[in-house]
Amino acid sequence: MTDRALVVVRAGALTTVQDRGRPGYAHLGVPRSGALDAPAAALVNRLVGNAPGAAVLETTLNGCAVRPRSTVVVAVGGAPCPVTVGGRPAAWGAPVVVPAGELLDVGTARSGVRSYVAVSGGIAVEPVLGSRATDLLSGLGPAPLAAGAVLPLGTPVGPHARADVVPQPSPPAELVLRVTLGPRADWFTPAAVRAFTSRAYRVSSASNRIGLRTDGPALERASPGELPSEGMILGAVQVPPDGRPVVFLADHPTTGGYPVIAVVRAADLPAAAQAVPGIPVRFVAVRRR
Amino acid sequence: MNTSMSGTGTGTGTGTGTGTGTGTGTNVDTSPRSATPMTIHPVGDDALLVEVGSGAEAQALHAELLRRRAEGALTVREIVPAARTVLLDGVDDPARRATELAATVLPPTPPRARAVIDLPVRYDGPDLAEVAAHWRVAEREVARIHAATEFTVAFCGFAPGFGYLTGLPARYDVPRRATPRTAVPAGAVALAGPYTGVYPRSSPGGWQLIGTTDAVLWDHARVPAALLAPGTRVRFVPVGDV
């Protein structure tokens, strides 16, 4: 068989197709979606010679296994994990040739949460509003991978990188998120704002692509009352009635009615995507640039 | 921590003409204007949340921001209107834009979009009786009043293509259901608070269901994918027995 496609052999806990998402449609209620660890997705694309916005696979904790129908170059990055091709160990974080019909197995993350798998030519499922990303909040884009599914591949555009293993940031052992306070910090008591920026939280196991949920001190509102729905952005730290901060990630709702106490610096969000449940989280207030 | 900037009344007339759709004649507004009181909250490093006093002002501000973007006077990734706010995300120079916005003068009512979308509706929802009780009218009157109203999509959210439609007088506000339904069918026409909405697809929901439409609110293969966008005018046209 020479057709360019991947057959899914093991889907893993949650593996989705991701690219840079579909920004620009928030006013229609369409989340931006896209790879949570965007620099990792861009890097693996570069390693296989793809454009930085080509669609890749995003795994969750325990990887996935796929069998290409034609020979491809792949690269695995993001959360470090064992990689095998046809049962033989292969490099993580470097271009790897997978011959037609051989099994590429992306193993359980040694640290971090999400590994990224780029394939030369990119995953070529039909785009929706300009993006191939799976959006788990609204259901746009392809369904999460399932065993037996066949994913079409695009035509390779460039040679793969000559690099050997390239350095990538290690997943955090403690997640430190720089935040600028507001727009609704005044909905909380001064003591709650101090607690938010000084006390330790932990990454909750209820975290997902929509939000990084936390366990820790509940933040007390300065007054009851309801906030009319307002627009939400990536990195917004929304505080639902249980008082535990939720950091909005790529599949976040476009509007919401719980107050946003602060916003995480964009540069710190890739680390949030790799934060394993249970690790400590600290929110550090910084000045707005 | 929030930079509050109330309009100073010194802004130049940057509004969109009369915008009141008063018919023929020149597009010159002679009514007195004042800058709209607004609070501009910085959000993160490159977003602004502009808060105004009413939904109508939010719609007017949204229309004005779209106009500026179309003219090339504003570079921004997202303009997201909501109940009392408009969010600008991915702003090129947030501090400068905040200063400009503080001097913005808005027309007293939002400019009306030309096109009106007619949504065929059967007023057969399971919550008609409850809505009629809230409104203190007979059930068939709910349909008559609702269908006689012209709505505007104030904003979208909740799901792709779900619009929050305003137009009913405040006395027809209704509460959400005490217990949300686990599945509301696609096409359900529903009320909550001051809003009417149509579920683009089956989903859980707590709104009061008054009818059903066969219109396809969202089709990602269609251009445009969303039948309703902020600013769209909407009429509900009864079909079948009313």
Description:
The complex is a heterodimer of chains A (289) and B (242). With 289 residues, chain A is mainly β. Chain A folds into 2 domains: 5-152, no CATH class; 175-285, Cyclophilin-like (Cyclophilin, Beta Barrel). Chain A is 9% helix and 28% strand. Chain A is built from 3 helices and 20 strands. Chain A has a 7-stranded mixed beta barrel with strand order 12-19-16-17-14-13-20. Chain A has a 6-stranded antiparallel beta sheet with strand order 7-6-9-4-1-11, with no helix packed on it. By secondary structure, chain B is α+β, with helices and mostly antiparallel strands. Chain B is 18% helix and 26% strand. Chain B is built from 4 helices and 13 strands. Chain B is elongated and about 55 Å long. The interface between A and B is large, with 38 and 38 residues.
Which short descriptors sum up this protein?
heterodimer; A: 289 residues; mainly beta; Cyclophilin; 2 domains; seven-stranded mixed beta barrel; six-stranded antiparallel β-sheet; 3 helices; 20 strands; 28% strand; elongated; B: 242 residues; alpha+beta; Gyrase A, domain 2; four-stranded antiparallel β-sheet; four-stranded mixed β-sheet; 4 helices; 13 strands; 26% strand
Total beta strand runs of chain B: 13
Portion of residues within helices of chain B: 10-25%
The coarse overall form of chain A would be: elongated
> What average pLDDT do the residues of chain B reach?
85
- Structural class category of chain B: alpha+beta
User: What distance lies between the first and last C-alpha atoms of chain A, to the nearest angstrom?
Assistant: 54 Å
CATH superfamily of the largest domain in chain B: Cyclophilin-like
| Main sheet strand line-up of chain A | 12-19-16-17-14-13-20
Distance between the amino and carboxyl termini of chain B: 54 Å
Pattern of helices and strands of chain B: EEHEEHEHHEEEEEEEE
- Report on the biggest sheet of chain B: 4 strands, antiparallel
Task: Report low-confidence residues of chain A grouped into runs of 5 or more.
Answer: none
Q: Classify the oligomer.
A: heterodimer
When the domains of chain A are counted, the total is 2
Largest sheet of chain A: 7 strands, mixed, barrel
Number of helices of chain B: 4
Secondary-structure-based class of chain A equals mainly beta
Percent strand of chain A equals 25-35%
Strand content of chain B: 25-35%
**C-alpha Rg of chain A (nearest Å):** 20 Å
